[in-house]
Design goal:
- The complex is a heterodimer.
- Chain A is of the alpha/beta class.
- Chain A folds into three domains: about 170 residues, Rossmann fold (3-Layer(aba) Sandwich), CATH 3.40.50; about 170 residues, 3-Layer(aba) Sandwich (Rossmann fold); about 180 residues, 3-Layer(aba) Sandwich (Rossmann fold).
- Chain A is built from 24 helices and 20 strands.
- In chain A, strand 6, helix 7 and strand 7 form a beta-alpha-beta unit.
- In chain A, helix 3 packs across helix 18, helix 11 packs parallel to helix 14 and helix 12 packs antiparallel against helix 15.
- Chain A is globular, with a radius of gyration of 24 Å.
- Chain B contains four helices and ten strands, in the order E-H-E-E-H-E-E-H-E-E-H-E-E-E.
- In chain B, the strands form two sheets. Chain B has a five-stranded antiparallel sheet with strand order 2-3-1-4-10, with helices on one face. In chain B, strands 5, 6, 7, 8 and 9 form a five-stranded antiparallel sheet that branches.
- In chain B, about 30% of the residues are buried.
- The longest helix of chain B has 13 residues.
- By secondary structure, chain B is an alpha+beta fold.
- The two termini of chain B are about 30 Å apart.
- Chain B has two domains: about 70 residues, ACT domain (Alpha-Beta Plaits); about 70 residues, Alpha-Beta Plaits, CATH 3.30.70.
- Classes of the chains: A alpha/beta, B alpha+beta.
- Chains A and B meet through loops of A and helix 1, helix 2 and strand 4 of B.
- The site of thiamine diphosphate (TPP) has 19 residues of chain A, from helix 17, helix 19 and helix 21.
C-alpha cells in the first residue's frame, strides 16, 4: 500500500503507542497535520512551541512514557531549543518532530529555514534530518528507542516538506534497531558490585546519594530495600525528590545549595558516599574540592561519562540504577548470610540531632504579610500531600522542594539542570494530560508565570484542569536574594512592579478561574476553594512577603562545610 | 604536554564529523589534530584524533556517548604506526636551492615544485620527523605549510581497546 511519508509518520507514532502529542502547526509541517486529523492520537495545541516542548516533558516526567512534541520549521523549531536543552539536562525522554523546508531549498536561506539539525545537535541525545523517504518508519522507531532507553533524553527528527509529501510503500517498523554504537550497559560488573558491598559493610558513616536516575529507572523500591537492609541514610537530589519517602527515618531530604543542613552535613562528614544515578552537579557539591572530603565514593550510573567527570570514584559501576541496586542487595544478602548489617546507630543519632537542631524555619505573623513558606505548608496540609507538584525556577521552587514531604516518585516535577523559568505551567499541563486522575498542583513564581502564561489558554480550551498557585512576591525573588546577599542590596531589574498583571482578571480572560489571597487567613480558604473546582484550570494568587529568603544556603562555589541557616550566618 | 592518539570507528552518516567536532567544542576539549577517511568496512569511517592527555578519559567517554561512534581504540605509540603528510613551500632562490635539497634528502622529503623564488616539498613521515624537517627549513622563510593531521594504525594484533569502565 502506498502512503505519504506524512501518513507513515502518523502510523509510526501510533505504532509506538503515542496517545497524545503537543504541538503547533505551520507551513513545513502541514503535511503531517493532515493525517493527524484522522488519527486517534490526541493533539494539544500549545500557544507557543516552548510550551509544547515543556508539556511533552511534563507528560514524560509524570508518566515515564516518551513525550512527543511537533512543530514547524524555522521559528517553530528554534522555539523548541529551550525544552530540548532542558530535557537533555534532566534526562527527560521526548521525541521532537519538526518540519523543514524542502530538500532542494535547504541551505538557500529559504522562508522559515533554520538549521534545525545543527542547532539542536548539542541539545539532544541524537537527532535526524530525514532525506530518504523510505527511512521514516525505522527512524521513528529508533528515535523512541533512543529517547527512552539507556540514559533517557530528547531526540529530534527533522522532516523536509517534500519528503513528507513523497509516497512510499508502508512497512511496519521491524522493531529492530540497528545502532552498532549504542548498546547501553545495564548490569553492573560483578567485581565492582563486590567491591561496593565490601565498602558498604566497612563504612561507619555511609550516605546514599540518590539522583534522578532512580526515578528514570523506576528503582525507588530497590533504593528503599537497600537503605533499610544496610541502614543507610538517603539524600534525594532535586531531580530525585520522591524517590525515597521523606517521612522515612532514614530520609535526609535534599542536599546542595539550598538543601537541608542534615543532608549537606551528613555528606560532608561521611566516610562513604554511594551515588546512584546522580551526577555530582555543582548545585550539590559546591566547591568540588571541599565536597565530602573524607568519603570513599561508589558511583553507579548508566552513563559512563558521568563517572569520573567531577569526582573520581573508588568503585565505578556502569549500569541501570534498578539493576545495580538489585545486584547490590543480592550481594549484600549473600555476604551477610543472615548476619545483621551494621546498624550505624551512632551515626544515625548524630544525623537526627542535626535534623532536630537545624530546621528550615520561618515565622508566619497572623497579621501578615503572607509568608511564601506558609502557602507551601498549607498546600501540603490541605491536599494531604496527595498531588503531583510542579515547580517553576526560583525561591518558590526551593520551598516547594524543601517543605513538601514527597513519598512517591514522579510526584515532583521541575527543571533541575537547566533551571528553566516558565517550566511549571506547561509541564503541569503535560503532567495532567498524562495523569488525568491525579491532582496536579503547580507552585509557580510570578516571574516564571509570566514567561509561559499564554499556555493558560491551552489548559482551558483543551480541558486540562490544572491548578496553579502563584507565590507572588512581586519580584524575581531568587535574583533579588542574590542582590541582597552579594550586591549590596542594589535591586537592579528584579522588581516586577505593582502586582501587574492582575492575576485574577488574567485567569478569567484566559478561561480559567482566578482566586486571590492577600492575608494569611485567606490562604487556607483559597486553597480549599481551588480544590472544589475541577472542570476548569484554577489560578490562585498569593501575595507574599518579598523579603523572605531561602535558607539553608551555601553560596555558589563555596564549601558545603559552611551552611548558612539564616542571614546572620552570612554576615 | 603528552598527546594521545585515538582511532575512532564511526558510522559513515551525514554530519558525523560535525557531531564529533561540536562535542569537542562544547566540552572544551582541545583537538590537536583530526583526520578522517573511509574505513575497511563499507559504511564506516575511521577518525584519527590526537588529544591532550589530561582529558583523555572524558574525551573517550564523551566520544563513546555519540550514537554514531562504534569503537574507540587508544593507540600506543610504541605499538602503532603514525604518519603525517606535509606540503611546504619555502623561499629559496637558486643560490639556496642546493642546501635545501640536501636537507630534504636527509629527511626523505621530495621536491615537488621548483620555482624561481621557492621550492615546494612533500614529506610523509612520523609526526615528529615531519616537525623536525619543518623546523630545519623554517629559517629559510616559510611561504605556506599544509599538514594532513596524524593518521595511525596499530601494529598487528597489538591494539589496546580502551573501553569505558564497566
Ligand atoms: C529563562 C530564565 N531566565 C532567567 C533565569 C534566572 N532566574 C533564576 S530565578 C529567577 C527569578 C524567578 O522569579 P519568580 O518566578 O518570581 O520566582 P521567585 O524566585 O520570586 O520565587 C530568575 C530571573 C532563569 N532561571 N531562567
Ligand atoms: Mg517572584
Amino acid at each position: 500500500m502506498k502512503i505519504t511519508v506524512a501518513e507513515a509518520l502518523i502510523k509510526a507514532l501510533e505504532f509506538e503507542g503515542v496517545e497524545v502529542m503537543f504541538g503547533h502547526p505551520g507551513g513545513a509541517i502541514l503535511p503531517a497535520y493532515d493525517p493527524l486529523y484522522d488519527s486517534p492520537i490526541r493533539h494539544i495545541l500549545a500557544r507557543h512551541e516552548q510550551g509544547a516542548g515543556h508539556m511533552a516533558e511534563g507528560y514524560a516526567q509524570a508518566t515515564g512514557k516518551v513525550g512527543v512534541v511537533i512543530a514547524t520549521s524555522g521559528p517553530g523549531a528554534t522555539n523548541l531549543v529551550t525544552p530540548l536543552a532542558n530535557a537533555y539536562m534532566d534526562s527527560v525522554p521526548i521525541v521532537a518532530i519538526t518540519g523543514q523546508v524542502p530538500t532542494h531549498a535547504i541551505g538557500n536561506d529559504a522562508f522559515q529555514e533554520a538549521h534545525t539539525w545543527g542547532i539542536s545537535m548539542p541539545a539532544t541525545k541524537h537527532n535526524y534530518l530525514v532525506t530518504d523517504p523510505a527511512d521514516i518508519p525505522d527512524v521513528i522507531h529508533e528515535a523512541f528507542h533512543l529517547a527512552g532507553s539507556g540514559r533517557p533524553g530528547p531526540v529530534l527528527v527533522d522532516l523536509p516538506k517534500n519528503i513528507l509529501n513523497t509516497e512510499i510503500e508502508w512497512h511496519q517498523p521491524t522493531g529492530k534497531v540497528d545502532l552498532p554504537g549504542y548498546k547501553p550497559n545495564t548490569k553492573g560488573h560483578p567485581l565492582q558490585i563486590r567491591a561496593a558491598v565490601d565498602l558498604i559493610l566497612a563504612a561507619e558513616r555511609p550516605v546514599l546519594y540518590a539522583g534522578g536516575g532512580i526515578v528514570a529507572a523506576g528503582a525507588h523500591a530497590e533504593l528503599l530495600a537497600l537503605a533499610e537492609k544496610a541502614n543507610l541514610p538517603v539524600t534525594t537530589t532535586l531531580m530525585a525528590r520522591g524517590a525515597f519517602p521523606d517521612h522515612h527515618p532514614l530520609s535526609l531530604g535534599m542536599p546542595g545549595m539550598h538543601g537541608l543542613y542534615a543532608a549537606i552535613t551528613a555528606i560532608q562528614k561521611s566516610d562513604l558516599l554511594i551515588a546512584i544515578g546522580a551526577r555530582f552537579d555543582d548545585r550539590v557539591t559546591g566547591d568540588p574540592a571541599a565536597f565530602a572530603p573524607h568519603a570513599k565514593v561508589i558511583h553507579a550510573d548508566i552513563d559512563p561519562s558521568e563517572i569520573g567527570k567531577v569526582r573520581t570514584p573508588d568503585v565505578p559501576i556502569v549500569g541501570d540504577a534498578r539493576t545495580v541496586l538489585g545486584q547490590l542487595i543480592g550481594k549484600l544478602d549473600r555476604t551477610l548470610d543472615g548476619a545483621p548489617a551494621p546498624d550505624h546507630a551512632g551515626w544515625l543519632e548524630t544525623i537526627r540531632e542535626w535534623q532536630r537542631d537545624k530546621v528550615v524555619h520561618y515565622q508566619q505573623d497572623p497579621a501578615g504579610p503572607i509568608k511564601p513558606q506558609f502557602v507551601v505548608e498549607e498546600l501540603y496540609r490541605i491536599t494531604g500531600g496527595q498531588a503531583i507538584v510542579v515547580a517553576g525556577v526560583g525561591q518558590h521552587q526551593m520551598w516547594a522542594s524543601q517543605l513538601w514531604k514527597y513519598t512517591k516518585p514522579r510526584t515532583w516535577i521541575n527543571s533541575g539542570g537547566l533551571g528553566t523559568m516558565g517550566y511549571a505551567i506547561p509541564a503541569a499541563i503535560g503532567a495532567k494530560v498524562g495523569m488525568p486522575d491525579e491532582l496536579v498542583y503547580a507552585i509557580d513564581g510570578d516571574g516564571c508565570f509570566q514567561m509561559t502564561m499564554q499556555e493558560l489558554t491551552t489548559a482551558s480550551t483543551e480541558g486540562v484542569p490544572v491548578k496553579i498557585a502563584v507565590l507572588n512576591n512581586n519580584n524575581l525573588g531568587m535574583v533579588r536574594q542574590w542582590q541582597r546577599l552579594f550586591y549590596n542590596e542594589r535591586f537592579s531589574a528584579t522588581e516586577l512592579t505593582n502586582h501587574t498583571p492582575d492575576y485574577v482578571k488574567l485567569a478569567e480572560a484566559m478561561g480559567c478561574v482566578g482566586l486571590r489571597a492577600e492575608h494569611p487567613s485567606e490562604v487556607g480558604p483559597v486553597i480549599e476553594k481551588s480544590l472544589t473546582i475541577n472542570d476548569q484550570p484554577v489560578i490562585s494568587e498569593f501575595r507574599v512577603d518579598p523579603d523572605e529568603m531561602v535558607f539553608p544556603m551555601v553560596p555558589a562555589g563555596g564549601s558545603n562545610d559552611d551552611v548558612a541557616m539564616s542571614l546572620e550566618d552570612l554576615k | 604536554m603528552t598527546l594521545h592518539v585515538l582511532s575512532v570507528l564511526v558510522e559513515d552518516k551525514p554530519g558525523v564529523l560535525a557531531r564529533v567536532s561540536s562535542m569537542f567544542a562544547r566540552r572544551g576539549f582541545n583537538i590537536h589534530s583530526l583526520a578522517v577517511g573511509p574505513s575497511a568496512e563499507p559504511g564506516n569511517s575511521t577518525m584519527t584524533v590526537v588529544v591532550d592527555a589530561a582529558e583523555i578519559e572524558q574525551v573517550v567517554k564523551q566520544l563513546r556517548k555519540l550514537i554514531n561512534t562504534i569503537k574507540i581504540t587508544e593507540l600506543d605509540p610504541a605499538e602503532s604506526v603514525e604518519r603525517e603528510v606535509m606540503l611546504v613551500r619555502v623561499a629559496a632562490d637558486a643560490s639556496l636551492r642546493g642546501e635545501l635539497l640536501d636537507a630534504a634528502s636527509v629527511f626523505k622529503a621530495k621536491a615537488v615544485d621548483v620555482g624561481a623564488t621557492s621550492v615546494t616539498f612533500e614529506m610523509v613521515g612520523t609526526p615528529s620527523k615531519v616537525n623536525d624537517f619543518l623546523e630545519l627549513i623554517r629559517p629559510y622563510g616559510l611561504i605556506d605549510v599544509v599538514k594532513s593531521g596524524w593518521i595511525a594504525l596499530a601494529r598487528d594484533s597489538k591494539t589496546r581497546n580502551l573501553r569505558a569502565i564497566s
